[in-house]
Fold:
Amino acid sequence: QVQLVESGGGLVQAGGSLRLSCAATGRTFSSYGMGWFRQAPGKEREFVAAISWNGGSTSYAESVKGRFAISRNNAKNTLYLQMNSLKPEDTAVYYCAAGVISGTSITERGYNYWGQGSQVTVSS
Structure:
């Protein structure tokens, strides 16, 4: 019922910025909590940020607090992740996810739908 497609990834130098977008289809988008996860080579997928159904609540991993900002535009069925002051350790495939709950889940089990991922590479 929900399909997610990420875009906006690419190569950027350390200290630079990127904005990821996640376009969603499905009538239930506006009622779902949304999140971003990332997976670096050889590592487990980890939580990055989450946002409640109406954008009223957000949650961030400690490693990205103050640098990343999650937002959503329900009228456009789109989720965003603004990434500033990027570091080489931010290099990963970034996935957007939609959950069946309206809050901010920080675990993979909180989400039913996943995008295919978008590569973000930060050079030194």
